Amino acid sequence: MQQISSVNNATVKKLAKLKQKKYRDEENSYLIEGFHLFDEAIKAGKKYQYLLGTEEALDKAESDYDVDLSGKNVILINKAIARHLSSTKNSQEIFMVLKIDQPKEFPFNYGKWVLLDNLADPGNVGTIIRTADAAGFDGVVLSPESADLYNPKTQRAMQGSQFHIDLIKRDLADVITDFQDVAIPVYASMLDKKAKQLQDFAKVPQLALIIGNEAHGVSSTIASLCDEKLYIPIKGKAESLNAAVAAGIMIYHFA
């Protein structure tokens, strides 16, 4: 086990930068924080590049999670470093650095999927992924301009669901073609009363469900490629639903 006591340590500086997308992309790594995500990563068999924690946190990792602390990639840190690395107000002082593992090729030929068309809010992205996981969907595809999957806010909203289902960043037009080539229907959620109402759709064994950007909805280009457009009726005076709430309603309609 290594021990680091200064926030000015080169390794600490390098890992702190992983809170920014630019450096996550450069290093092909990301930082997770807290015992819940730590536990989910361990259960999923993830190999960590670094495990960092205060003495109390590492003792808990060893006693409660049976983690071997003898490796060189385990680092004992102090509370000042924990605060420096943390993205939360009340850190549990345990951190893990994982490799970003995006598949270069993926066969979109089965199951139920959610496609995110340029969703901007990391909390919405994480919540939708968690909901898709809870409903038994097989995966979520994020367009290149959607909020970063490895953003700390996205990580907290997912609550470990990133370790349970397939999460892939791809151009949605290509993915829609892949689904349609194997007869998987693609439905776009639209804020358009001319679209078919959600209750008019029966459950199907496989589908791809597109959720659009919070401000602009599903783009016209992507909508034009879909097999059907659906609409959640608004019964009150609210103009629209939050993207994650709308996604949850639709996901469970088809679950």
Question: How would you explain this protein's 3D organization?
Answer:
- With 255 residues, this protein is of the alpha/beta class.
- 35% of the residues lie in helices and 20% in strands.
- The protein has 2 domains: 97 residues, 60s Ribosomal Protein L30, Chain: A (2-Layer Sandwich), CATH 3.30.1330; 143 residues, SPOUT methyltransferase, trefoil knot domain (Alpha/beta knot), CATH 3.40.1280.
- The longest helix has 13 residues.
Features:
5-stranded mixed sheet; 7-stranded parallel sheet; 2 domains; 60s Ribosomal Protein L30, Chain: A; 255 residues; single chain; 10 helices; alpha/beta; Alpha/beta knot
Task: Detail the topology: elements first, then pairings.
Blueprint: E1 2-3, H1 10-16, H2 21-27, E2 29-33, H3 35-43, E3 50-53, H4 55-65, E4 74-76, H5 79-85, E5 94-99, E6 112-117, H6 122-134, E7 139-142, H7 152-158, E8 166-169, H8 172-181, E9 186-189, E10 196-197, E11 207-212, H9 220-225, E12 228-231, H10 243-254
Parallel strand pairs: 1-4, 3-4, 6-7, 6-11, 7-8, 9-11, 9-12, 10-12
Antiparallel strand pairs: 2-5, 3-5
Organism: Lactobacillus ultunensis DSM 16047
GO biological process, one term: methylation
Family: Belongs to the class IV-like SAM-binding methyltransferase superfamily. RNA methyltransferase TrmH family.
